[in-house]
Amino acid sequence: MSAFVGKYADELIKTAKYIATPGKGILAADESTGTIGKRFSSINVENIESNRQALRELLFTSPGALPCLSGVILFEETLYQKTSDGKLFVDFLQENGVIPGIKVDKGVVDLAGTNGETTTQGLDSLGSRCQEYYKAGARFAKWRAVLKIGATEPSELSIQENAKGLARYAIICQENGLVPIVEPEVLTDGSHDIKKCAAVTETVLAAVYKALNDHHVLLEGTLLKPNMVTPGSDSPKVTPEVIAEHTVTALRRTVPAAVPGVVFLSGGQSEEEATLNLNAMNKLDVLKPWTLTFSFGRALQQSTLKAWAGKTENVANAQATFLTRCKANSDATLGAFETCVTFDAIWIRRLVGCSAFLVAAKGSSFFSFIFSSFCSLCRLPVTLFPTALLRLLSLFESGGVVPAWWLDLGRRVASWRSTPVRFSVVSPSTLSFAQQISAAFGGGHSRFRRLLAEVFCVSVVPTRSTGCACYSPRGRVSSAGASDLLPCPTYLRVIVLCIRNSFSSYENSHVFS
Amino acid sequence: MSAFTSKFADELIANAAYIGTPGKGILAADESTGTIGKRLASINVENNETNRRNLRELLFTAPGALPCLSGVILFEETLYQKSSDGKLFVDILKEGGVLPGIKVDKGTVELAGTNGETTTQGLDGLGERCKKYYEAGARFAKWRAVLKIGENEPSEHSIHENAYGLARYAVICQENGLVPIVEPEILVDGSHDIHKCAAVTEKVLAACYKALSDHHVLLEGTLLKPNMVTPGSDSAKVTPEVIAEHTVRALQRTVPAAVPAVVFLSGGQSEEEATKNLNAMNQLKTKKPWSLSFSFGRALQQSTLKTWAGKEENVKAAQEALYVRCKANSEATLGTYKGDAKLGDGAAESLHVKDYKY
User: Fold this and answer.
1) HEC-encoded secondary structure of B220-245
2) Nearest to residue B266, comparing CAs of B247, B286, B245, B287?
3) Which tens digits make up the pLDDT trace of B135-178?
4) Chain B residues within 8 Å of chain A (Cβ atoms)
5) Sorting pLDDT into bands at 50, 70 and 90, what band is A305?
6) What's the CATH number where A222 sits?
7) Are B109 and B64 in contact (CB under 8 A)?
8) Residues A463-482, mean pLDDT to the nearest whole number
9) pLDDT at A426 (0 to 100)
10) What Gene3D superfamilies does this protein map onto (chain B) (predicted)?
C-alpha cells in the first residue's frame, strides 16, 4: 500500500470511525494553561490548578452530556488529573464511551520573511511523547496549523510548511497508535468575501492531502478539522445555507472519501452560529462521503463558563447550559436542529399553564387564548409575562395536573414527513431566563427545573380535512373535536388540544432526560 | 472558487454528470490512423479511409448499442465522416443520446534521462483545436498520459510531468467547452504484485489531483480514466473481487467526491475480464461517491472486429457481438452482470500488448 500500515492500523481505523459517529462530536477542552487563564480572567476566576480541574470536572460530569460526545481533546495537564472522587478523567471518559484525545503541538512560531505567517512546532520527540500519551489512555491527537488570508497570504511557503508539518505529525501519531486530527485552520480575520475563503480553503486542503499522501498517512485512520467557509470577520454575514454550500463544495473538491469524518472548528463563531451552520451542512442534499460533525471549544463552553463564574453553587446550572449546547450540536450533526423546538416548548408550557389555570378559574378563557396566542405570534419575550403565571405552573406541577412530556420530539418529528408549522421563536436569552426562574423557584425542586429545561414540542401540521392536526410525543392527537370548541384559527385550536391532552391521563409520565 | 469558472461551467458539469449515468459508459473508438491500421491488419483488412469509415459505421449503427453508451471518443478524422446515408456520425450519435468526444493529444515522447519514461505532447494550439472540435459537435476530450512500473519507475520527474501536462490540458479544454477526461494510465507490464500497483496508482492519482487543483480545474466538470489496480502482466492473476477492493480503495484515498464519474480503461485485459472486474467494483459495499463505469476500446471491439473481418455479410453478426459486450458492460456498471454474456470469438482472449503504444 502507499499508506503505512503499522501494527495499530485496525485500531486507528476503528477509533477514527467511532469519533465520526453521527449524533456525536468532540469537545475541545485542550486550552493550554495560558489560554485557559484568559478565559478565567473573563469570569474573574483565578488561574490555579484546582480551578482548572474544577472546570473540566464540571464539563465531563454534566448529566446527559457525554452521550452527545465521541471524544474530548485534553491538555497534557488534564490527562493526568482526577475527579473529586479520585477517578482519573481519562478513565471516567472511557467508561462513558468518550475517547480521550491530546493536544500535541507546541504552538506557532513566525516564518521569517513572511508577513506574519506562522508554522507550528512540536515534532521533536513527538514519537516518544505519543507513546506516553497512549499509555496514559489517549487514543487521538490534535495539531493546529494556522494560515491567514491577506493580499499575498497565504503564501506558497506557508501552505507548504504547514501542510508538511501536519503530514509529519500525522504519520508519527499513527506509528504510535494515536488517530491524528489534521487541523489546517484558515483564520477568519479580514475583509475578504466568502468566495475568497473558499478558494484559499480548497488550495490549502489540496496541499494538505498531497502532503499526507507523500508521507504515506493512512487516511482511513485520520480526521480532518477544518474551518467552515465563511466571509471574513470584517465582511457582511451570510446565511447558514450559503456557508453550508460553500463549505461542502470545498470539501467535495479536496477531501478523499477514505477520510471517515470532518470535525469542524468553530473559529470565532458564536455558539448559536456554529450550531446553525453545522446543521445547514448536514441538511444539504448533496453526496457527502464523510460525516460532518463538530470539534468545538468556545462554541460549547462559552455560556457554560459564564454560568459557572467559578462558584460551586452555579455548577448544576452551568452543567444544564452545557448539556443544551451538546444536545443542540448533536442534533445539528443529524440536520435535526430546530431553533424553535426548545423555545416553542417554553411557550406551549406557558400557554398550557396559564390557559389551564384560566379554564379552571372559569375566567374569560377565550380572551386569554387570544392574548396568549397573540403574544406567541408576536414573539414577545417571556419577561413580559407576569412571574405569577410561572408560580401557577409550579402549583400545577406539584399537584400533578400538568404531566411530564417527552422531550426530543424534534427527532421524531423529523421522521414524519410534513413540515411542521412553528408558531413561535424566541431568543436564547429566554431560555436562560427560564432557567434562572426555575433556579429561583426550584432550589431543590429538580423536577420542575428539569421540566423547564426540557424540550417538548407540538408540531402543527396543516391538513385538509380539519384545518390542523396536532402531534404530541405520544402520537397524533385527534383533532376531530377541535371544531366543536370554538370557531378560532388553527393555532388556537392547538392550544385547546394541548389543554385537553394535559387533562387526560398517561400511563408513562416519566421524564426523558 | 479556486476552480476556474468559464462560461461553459454549467454545460461542463451537466455533460460530465451525463457521461457518468449508471448503466452507460464510453466506447473508445479513437484509434489513430496508425493504430487502427494494426487492428485492421490483424483481420486482413486494408487500412484505407473507406474501411475505417465502414468499421465506425458498423459500431455506431449497431442496434441496441447506443442506449448502453453515454459517449464515444472519436479520432479527428471520424469527427467529420458520414454514414453511407450521408449523415454525420456526430449527428447519429447525438440523436442516439450519445455525446461525441475527441482525442486531443499527439502521442507520447521520451523523457530524456529516464529509463524509457514518457510525457505526452499536444498542448500547442490546443485552445484553437478545442474550439474547432466544439463547433464540429464534440463535447468531451481525452488525453492519455502513460507511466510504467519498474525498479525506479515511475520517477518523481515522470509523475510530475504527466500530472501537470494533464492539468494544463484539462483547463484548456474547460475554457473551450469540452469536458476533459483525465487519463493517467499506469501500464500493466511487469512482474510486480497488486500491492505495488496500488501504491503507484495512489501516488500518481494524488499528484494528478494536486496538479488539477493548482491549475484551477473545475473537478465537477471532469472525468477520470484510470487503470484498474491489478497485478503485473507477468504476475499471477487474482480474482475480480481482489481487483475491485484494491481499485476502489485507491480511488477512495485520492479522488475527491466532486468528480462525478470514473471511467476505467481496460489496458490489456480481455473483454470478459474487464467486464467482470467492473462488475465486482460496482458490487462492492463501500463508499463510492463517483459512479464507476467503462471507457473501453479493445475490450468492446475485439470480438466485433474478429466477427466482421471486413466482410459486408458479417456486419449483422459483428453488430450483434458489439451489442453483447455493450450490454454486459452496461450491466457491470450496475453490478448486475451475471457473467452469462454469449462469449464472442476472442472475448476471453487477453489483449495485452507489451509496452503498448498507440
Assistant:
1) HHCEECCCCCCCCCCCCCCCHHHHHH
2) B247
3) 999 999 999 999 999 999 999 999 999 999 999 999 999 999 99
4) 1-3, 195, 198-200, 202-203, 206-207, 209-210, 213-214, 219-220, 249, 251-258, 287-289
5) very high
6) 3.20.20.70
7) no
8) 36
9) 29
10) Aldolase class I
Q: For chain A, how many helices (H) and strands (E)? A: 19, 13
Query: Are A139 and A99 spatial neighbours (Cβ–Cβ below 8 Å)?
Result: yes
* Sheet of strand A459-461, all strands in order from the earlier edge strand to the far edge: A459-461, A469-472, A475-477
Residue B291 has what DSSP assignment? E
Cα A430 to Cα A423: distance, rounded to the nearest angstrom: 16
Which residue in the block uniquely carries the three cell numbers 481482489?
B242
Rounded CA-CA distance B78/B101 in Å is: 10
Q: How far is CA A185 from the centre of its chain?
A: 19
Alpha helix (H) residue ranges in A73-150:
76-79, 89-95, 126-136
Quick check: is A502 in a domain?
A: no
Residue of chain B nearest A4, judged by CA positions:
B199
Rounded to 5 degrees, what are φ and ψ at B317? -65, -40
How many Å apart are CA B308 and CA B314, to the nearest integer?
5
Tell if the CB–CB gap between B253 and A288 is shorter than 8 Å: no
> Residue B337 — φ and ψ, nearest 5°?
-75, 130
For A395-440, how does the pLDDT look when each residue is reduced to its tens digit (9 = 90+)? Answer: 444 444 434 343 334 344 434 433 333 323 223 333 344 444 444 4
Indicate yes or no: CB of B257 within 8 angstroms of CB of A195.
Answer: no
Q: A326-329: long-range contacts at Cβ-Cβ below 8 A with a sequence spacing of 24 or more?
A: A326/A27, A326/A62, A326/A64, A326/A65, A326/A68, A326/A69, A326/A300, A327/A64, A327/A68, A328/A275, A329/A25, A329/A68, A329/A274, A329/A275, A329/A278, A329/A294, A329/A296, A329/A299, A329/A300
pLDDT at B13 over 80: yes
- In the block, cell 503541538 appears at A105
Rounded Cα distance, B30 and B107, in Å? 12
- DSSP for residue A481: G
Count the residues in chain A.
513
Positive or negative: CA dihedral B169, B170, B171, B176: positive
Q: Is A256 close to B255, i.e. CB distance below 8 A?
A: yes
The set of cell numbers assigned to B79 is: 469527427
Q: Where are the beta strands (DSSP E) in A359-502?
A: 459-461, 469-472, 475-477
**Which chain A residue shows the shortest CA-CA distance from B218?**
A253
Q: Does A246 reside within a domain?
A: yes
What are the distances in angstroms from CA A482 to CA A473, A491, A500, B81, B287?
A: 19, 11, 10, 75, 50
Domain assignment of residue A76, yes or no: yes
Split into its structural domains, chain A has a count of 1
Cis, peptide link before residue B154, omega less than 30° from 0: yes
- State which residues form the domain around A96: 8-334
Judge whether A45 lies within some domain: yes
The CATH fold assigned to B8-334 is TIM Barrel (3.20.20)
ipTM: 0.87
